[in-house]
Design goal:
Helix content is 17%, strand content 43%. It is of the alpha+beta class and 162 residues long.
């Protein structure tokens, strides 16, 4: 329910300033990929590496890897539309954590019968890995520690108190 992107969702990246010779600069492409995958949080994507080098042959897809909030991700980059855009195909599912945390807060309010504030130690977007868990604190007149554990890659979760 909190899935942001499922595997194989495609982002088309328009590259500014193609080289004019049918080859897009790898630097141009790599600079634009984080924003194409996560427009609101491109800073969460780091360490992009591609083989073969992106832009050497527009007909050859490049297999790429990076990290998103310290978790590995994989994607394919393929030239599209001549020399002015590429297609990025993400292989993992990623989840926006804000709606997931808001849902957990509503559930805890219903269970504990109190108005709560919730703070979680997690990035704004994470790779959806079954079993992944992150720590949170719910505060009313007392402080309650809990964790949220992902049950699957689409964002179903379980709250673990204590």
């Amino acid at each position: 329910p909190f899935l942001r992107y499922a595997p194989l969702v495609v982002a088309v990246v328009a590259i500014a300033g193609g080289c004019g010779d049918g080859v897009i600069s790898q630097d141009q492409i790599l600079a634009d990929i984080p924003g194409a995958i996560l427009a609101d949080h491109p800073d969460l994507i780091e360490g992009i590496a591609c083989e073969p080098e992106v832009g050497l042959d527009p007909a050859t897809p490049s297999q790429c890897s990076a990290t998103l909030a310290d978790e590995p991700i994989s994607f394919t980059v393929t030239a599209a539309g001549g020399n002015d855009s590429v297609v990025v195909v993400l292989e993992e599912s990623v989840i926006d954590t804000a709606p997931l945390i808001a849902d957990a807060r509503r559930s805890l309010r219903a269970d504990l019968g109190a108005k709560l504030t919730v703070d979680c130690d997690v990035a704004a977007v994470i790779v959806a890995v079954k079993g992944a868990q992150f720590a949170c604190t719910a505060t009313d007149e007392a402080e309650h520690s809990f964790s949220i554990r992902l049950l699957d890659e689409i964002g179903n979760y379980r709250i673990n108190l204590g």
